[in-house]
Amino acid sequence: MFFVLVCAETYNPDEEEDDTESRIIYPKTDDQRNRLQEACKDILLFKNLDPEQMSQVLDAMFEKLVEGGEHVIDQGDDGDNFYVIDRGTYDIYVKCDGVGRCVGTYDNRGSFGELALMYNTPRAATIIATSPGAVWGLDRVTFRRIIVKNNAKKRRMYENFIESLPFLKSLELSERLKVVDVIGTKVYKDGEQIIAQGEMADCFFIVESGEVRITMKRKNKQDVEENEAVEIARYSRGQYFGELALVTNKPRAASAFALGTVKCLVMDVQAFERLLGPCMEIMKRNIANYEEQIVALFGTNMDIADASE
Ligand code: 1OR
Ligand code: 1OR
Asked: Domain Cyclic nucleotide-binding: where (predicted)?
């Protein structure tokens, strides 16, 4: 008798050979390259890329100038590019019962247009420039080849951790996976400032490892901040911070510093609003605790939040 042994190989996207695919390279001037690097340095979706992937992404990006009033993306269209903002301000409109409502803005930083490319869905919002500006585009094919592939790795790394977080327990599994897709990892050195009290806020943090020290400067009777900061909290693995300013639309109520090396998962304000709505009750209950503590610690209610809105 004669046997043939068939070896069934499972498909693994990580081992996909992509060297044969043609790479897109847009040549850039030194000035363009510098501006591009500056614009991309805080883009969360790029944070987990290795240097080779990052350099392929930068090569493939192209500059697009936009005029005030221009629609960079229209809700309902197919996705062509992902965009990183170089400069300019942009409104985010989402249609509700056929009527477009402005649900947020971008002010000279950030990125948009990842959802249609990640999930093969129509554009979920309209993005309109409210000033002349410029964005860096990344084509769909390169985005999927590098970012979407990298997301598969991120899911394996963070799915269990995200699953274990009590404050995300109101999310469905599919929503938690979407959280993993949009987070970026940031590492802080001992003593490094993560958040500065009084600054405007655009992201939310979850501690992955290490310890974070939260300090607050109280205000005197003339409403001027005193110099000495008081430690008000410490956070470690699995705890979150930086939600208050996003929920209340106020400046940061306190500062945050790394104690030893700290690794945080970071989410931008648009993703926070889009994905964490179901967790808001838990967060607001916690904010009510801050208000009680503030009276206990400082003897006054410093008006940190009006979380009832
Ligand atoms: P996209 O490819 O769907 C539109 O094209 C982009 O707008 C989208 O990717 C996001 O990058 C960006 N809901 C959906 N998309 C949003 C939102 C958003 N904000 C920015 N984008 N919401 C607003 C949250 C402030 C939720 C509205 C209910
Ligand atoms: P944020 O966006 O205002 C600073 O940036 C973060 O520190 C804040 O969000 C909270 O996540 C976190 N009062 C205000 N913010 C606090 C407090 C707090 N504790 C942690 N944060 N209180 C401490 C209660 C133990 C009351 C002040 C005395």
From this structure: 45-164, 167-293
